[in-house]
Amino acid sequence: MVRVGAVVAVHWTATLGQKRTEHKEEHCHHMRLLRRLLVLMVWVLASWPIYYFLGALWAPDACLDHGGSFDYRLWQCSQETQPYINIALHEIPGFWFAAGSLVLAIAGTRLIKQLMASQDRLPKSESGNMD
To answer: What's the per-residue H, E or C state across the chain?
Structure first.
């Protein structure tokens, strides 16, 4: 009888260890999924100002392709003949907004990855995993 109890205890301990390993693997999978989702959300939010800037960047070409004349002072298409004015890239509407969102998206991505990596290294009592 003692042997049976010892075998059951060994089996129970092995099963418990296996369940903890499976739980940890599942937790890691969920954390990776959460990290990917957060990074995706950061880049989706950052893409809007970049999209706006690219539209402004290509506005003169679109205007000229449709037979208009582009007013570089007002940044709009016109049917009246307008003089060409050389505009620097940083003077195009939306440039600083797009550049700032790009920098924030890169910084946010790095921060999310660092926070998630540090969360994986925390002991169970600090990371919120109570077994």
So the answer is: CHHHHHHHHHHHHHHHHHHHHHHHHHHHHHHHHHHHHHHHHHHHHHHHHHHHHHHHHHHHHHHHHCCCEEECCCCEEECCCCCCCCCCHHHCCCHHHHHHHHHHHHHHHHHHHHHHHHHHHCCHHHHCCCC
